[in-house]
Amino acid sequence: MGEFKEKKATCGTVCLKYLLFTYNCCFWLGGCGVLGVGIWLAATQGNFATLSSSFPSLSAANLLIITGTFVMAIGFVGCVGALKENKCLLLTFFVLLLLVLLLETTIAVLFFAYTDKIDRYAQQDLKKGLHLYGTQGNVGLTNAWSIIQTDFRCCGVSNYTDWFEVYNATRVPDSCCLEFSDRCGLHAPGTWWKAPCYETVKAWLQENLLAVGVFGLCTALVQILGLTFAMTMYCQVVKADTYCA
């Protein structure tokens, strides 16, 4: 009877070991994908989606590269820890994944708690960023604003008049025009988009809030599953070491 229980426990540990290994392989491959997209964006699009003047390095490419590298590192630690049944690596994986989950939760809570303040700060920062539009070394910011204004059919942060301060004239970028043509931004205001970009993009995000929420919930559940696998495996290894001792 004792031998049967021991074999059953060993079988469970092996199954858990390869479940955790498979989980971390997927985790690592996901990190590779995110890193690859980030590198591709950095190489082909420059600092795409850099809209902030206060945080010029906060571009889509840089965020993806940092996130991808961090996810790959966590996945690698988990893979090695599972294969080697190493207590230290399993515990490290658990702690890192737990910290990521807590960080995500904290950011989400703070975002919803200080939405109004974030709105005001974001609009002020974006307006400062407009003054870098079209200047040397700010190709990413220029491209990002051109894409947003064209795709969302909007102009400026809170109004098309935001651009008047940038140009010191009654003028907007050509991406603000209802019908694009060279130097159309010098035409009459009746030929420009009137919708404010900040509110337009915010409304679009709110319309897709359910999809964002589902994605966030699924991500949290996957992380909790990883935490469960890691801690269970860690406990099994500790129990096995104690039994052997």
TrEMBL record:
<protein>
    <recommendedName>
        <fullName>Tetraspanin</fullName>
    </recommendedName>
</protein>
<dbReference type="Pfam" id="PF00335">
    <property type="entry name" value="Tetraspanin"/>
</dbReference>
<dbReference type="InterPro" id="IPR008952">
    <property type="entry name" value="Tetraspanin_EC2_sf"/>
</dbReference>
<dbReference type="InterPro" id="IPR018499">
    <property type="entry name" value="Tetraspanin/Peripherin"/>
</dbReference>
<feature type="disulfide bond">
    <location>
        <begin position="155"/>
        <end position="176"/>
    </location>
</feature>
<feature type="transmembrane region" description="Helical">
    <location>
        <begin position="21"/>
        <end position="43"/>
    </location>
</feature>
<keyword id="KW-0325">Glycoprotein</keyword>
<dbReference type="InterPro" id="IPR000301">
    <property type="entry name" value="Tetraspanin_animals"/>
</dbReference>
<keyword id="KW-0472">Membrane</keyword>
<keyword id="KW-1133">Transmembrane helix</keyword>
<feature type="transmembrane region" description="Helical">
    <location>
        <begin position="90"/>
        <end position="114"/>
    </location>
</feature>
<keyword id="KW-0812">Transmembrane</keyword>
<feature type="transmembrane region" description="Helical">
    <location>
        <begin position="209"/>
        <end position="230"/>
    </location>
</feature>
<dbReference type="GO" id="GO:0005886">
    <property type="term" value="C:plasma membrane"/>
</dbReference>
<feature type="transmembrane region" description="Helical">
    <location>
        <begin position="63"/>
        <end position="83"/>
    </location>
</feature>
<keyword id="KW-1015">Disulfide bond</keyword>
<comment type="similarity">
    <text>Belongs to the tetraspanin (TM4SF) family.</text>
</comment>
<dbReference type="InterPro" id="IPR018503">
    <property type="entry name" value="Tetraspanin_CS"/>
</dbReference>
